[in-house]
Amino acid sequence: MNPHLAPVEVPDPAALPAVQRLCDLTAPYTTGPETDALFAAAMAETNSWHAERSPFFRSLLADPPETPAPTVGARTRTPLLHATFFKRHEVLSVPREEVFLHLTSSGTTGQKSQMFYDRWTIRAAQRMVARIFDHYGWITPDRPVNYLLYSYEPAPDVRLGTSFTDNYLCDFAPARHITHALRHTGSGHEFDVHGCIAALRRYADEGLPVRILGFPAFLHFTLERMRATGIPPLRLPEGSLIVLGGGWKGHADRQIGKEDFYDQVTEQLGIPGERIRDTYGSVEHCVPYVECAHHRLHVPVWSRAAVRDTRTLQPLPYGARGFLHLVSPYITSVPAQSVVMGDLASLHPGEECGCPLATPWFTIHGRAGVSRNRSCAVAAAELLKGMS
After folding, report:
1. How confident is the model over 132-176, as pLDDT tens digits?
2. Measuring CA to CA, how many Å separate 290 from each of 69, 251, 305, 313?
């Protein structure tokens, strides 16, 4: 068995049997009444788990029930916590000695989400990623690749979620060589655009597939610099793959439409559109959302999504724009099983996509309001200033 798909056990099998069964589901986009019932049972278990261990969550659960979202389940309690809560508070449901991993959501300054994971939580989330990659045939243990990571180069004091995720994704195909775009200088990170261009040209000649992971703004800037300096389009080897994440936060003035951006990548790097995928995720909610071949962010079986009115927090129908509300019972370390994100989104039924997946999908329309809080993408985008 691939090690990334290996079994992992909940902290208390007697208290969390439905959580175990839900997270053990191997097909990432299964639908139907049986999985809905299992999801509701798992949410009830994880709510009880956190209520017993967190006085804060116990008081939250005692409040009048929130209006249920049909896409989550009419009988499923989902007390609403905004993601910004975790930028100001540390609320654990496990002893600190059981914290296996501590990650943050932002750069070196500004407010950061401090998220703590026990071994089960982070391993369960990683297995979700592995199952989605396996679903799309992206786990290739016998085929080495070259990597270009548009994320932070690891360092002993760097706990950024994006850096952790992108380096984990390198485990799905053996690395012949890895290039980091955001190089660690000892006192911070610098964007090495010339190193990225040199790596792409070298990788194009070597003949191995190339995997490009990370912030889309940096890839876009690299392609712009290639055009500006007269570097002709490259043809990266067959089997190359681009998996992006982090959005364009902080550089909306540079952002181009997704279709235009993907066309630019295909034109300059030779990677077809179906091998270019965007993702959505956060340290507050580690369930992976990965675009299908039609570039829709489908909701996997281990989670549910809703959209809530930005003023009333009432659930909205398909197609309406509001706060993205993400729900999953997988997390046992922190009561973050029901998180209202700061992103504006719209939710759509699976059949509106046209791909074989039947689960609902969502579109991100940008951030709601203006805040001083800085995500990883905002912090990274600041490195681009003055380079154009």
Report:
1. 999 999 999 999 999 999 988 876 555 444 445 557 788 899 999
2. 22, 22, 14, 26
Spatial separation of the C-alpha atoms in residues 375 and 366, rounded to whole Å: 13
Q: Token pair of 272, please?
A: 């077809």
The answer on 143 and 72 residing in a single domain is no
In a domain, residue 281? The reply is no
Examine the domain organization and report whether 214 and 263 are in the same domain: yes
Q: Is 322 exposed, middle or buried (0-12, 13-18, 19+ CB in 10 A)?
A: buried
Please give the Cα distance from 235 to 152 (Å, whole number): 26
Q: Which domain holds residue 47?
A: 7-94+295-367
- Please give the model's pTM, rounded to 2 decimal places: 0.89
Q: Report how far Cα 251 is from the mean position of its chain's Cα atoms.
A: 19
**Same-domain status, 142 and 247:** yes
Helix axes 216-228, 258-269, angle to 10 degrees: 50
The amino acid occupying position 360 is P
Identify any residues that bridge with 348 across adjacent strands, giving them in sequence order.
361
CA dihedral 247, 184, 225, 382 (to 10 degrees): 50
Helices (H), 3-62: 17-24, 33-53, 55-62
pLDDT confidence of 380, banded at 50, 70, 90? Answer: very low
